[in-house]
Structure formats: structure tokens, C-alpha cells
Amino acid sequence: MAPTDDRLDPAIAARLKRTADGLVPAVVRRHDDGEVLMLAWMNDEALHRTLTTGRATYWSRSRHELWVKGETSGHHQYVKSAALDCDGDTILLTVEQVGPACHTGTPTCFSDELPVRA
Q1: pTM (2 d.p.)
Q2: Beta-strand relationship, 65-68 and 77-84
Q3: 82: closest CA among 18, 8, 19?
Q4: Cβ-Cβ contacts under 8 Å for 13 (sequence gap 6 or more)
């Protein structure tokens, strides 16, 4: 059965292992240097929109709605590639990031280093 225009491909959907609330984490990295930019959450519709539009689309757990990265901030993410990990429980997006990735204005959400004892 072919997917409809508004539904995630059933073959992809079948591989996903979602949280109890139907979400899958998406790790986002910059395409040119591989730096990890952020972690966000996707439901089936967000993943479908991401794969079909090339614009990173996520599920906001706080607002309970879809959001396209950069729609309000202007800090867009254009998807270069998407991959599903071997267990089907994490998505990896490689993106062209325009502007900072973090809502705080930093280039990456992972800028607060923690001390590690060797």
C-alpha cells in the first residue's frame, strides 16, 4: 500500500519504537562539521513532514503542537539526510543550520560542559 500525501510511509512507521506518548527522539547535527546541535522530539506527522518537505519539523512537548524549526525565529534547519538507528528508537537528522540552533541563541544546545573525572 502506498503512503498518502499526509501519512508517514507505513514501512518507516513500522520500524519506529516510540515512547508511551508516541514520540521518537531526534538528534540533530550540522552537515558540514558533524557538530551535535540539539535533541528534539518527533511524532509520525513531524517525521513525515520532515522527510517530505526537507524542513526540520518537531513535536513540542510543552506546547503540544508541531513546529517547524525557524518558523518564528528565522533559524531554519534544512535537512540534508535522515537516518534511523538500528533499534528504531532514535532519528539522526543532518541539517544545514541557519543561525543558532538553540532557543537561547547559542550555536548548539550542548554548550554547557560538565566536569568529567578520568
Answers
A1: 0.91
A2: unpaired
A3: 8
A4: 44
